[in-house]
Design goal:
Length: 181
């Protein structure tokens, strides 16, 4: 019985796993079902300058829920002033034109090191994930995160899952009754 449960669990887990690729700003391709490690490191030459990084991606063939969490700032406390710091950070999901904003998050104060956005996006080309801020660390600054898209289950999928669970329950009940007979 335990083997049957394991055999049913393995395909479900495999369906949710995908490999991550590290990328910088630019075109990512079709994000559906993929996970990308995103980030950018700025040198001391970028001190006191603003930046806008844009990651462009497509969603196909069906709607997906896209989400990310971006972490900023790395500090070495034994030096005065923050060495690697980004301030006034903001992240957002937009359409190809930038006119429609699906979700946005802004850094509320200097101690706010994590920004997160998520949105359900219909199938389309040219979505943008925009990261903006100011490099204020005397040695530069950096941010990093993960951009991931998971399919939104269609109503037929829920029906199939429910039917499968009913079938498994029926089989389990018959096996249990047969063991008692």
């Amino acid at each position: 019985m335990h083997r049957t449960k394991l055999l049913l669990l393995v395909p479900m887990l495999v369906g949710y796993m995908s490999s991550a690729s590290a990328v910088g700003p630019g075109y990512l391709g079709n994000l559906s079902g993929n996970t990308y490690s995103i980030g950018h490191t700025f040198s001391a030459l970028a001190h006191d300058s603003p930046f806008v990084d844009t990651y462009i991606f497509d969603i196909a063939p069906q709607s997906v829920t896209v989400g990310t969490t971006v972490t900023i700032n790395l500090d070495m406390p034994f030096f005065p002033r923050p060495q690697f710091e980004l301030l006034n950070m903001s992240i957002k999901f937009t359409d190809a034109t930038g006119a429609t904003i699906y979700d946005t998050d802004n850094q509320s104060n200097a101690a706010d090191y994590t920004l997160a956005v998520s949105a359900t996006l219909p199938a389309a080309l040219g979505y943008k994930f925009v990261v903006a801020g100011d490099v204020t660390g005397n040695l530069g600054g950096s941010y990093g995160g993960v951009l991931q898209a998971l399919p939104v289950p269609e109503p037929e999928t829920h029906t199939m899952v429910l039917a499968g669970l009913c079938l498994i329950g029926t089989i389990w009940r018959r096996c249990k009754n047969a063991a008692w007979a």
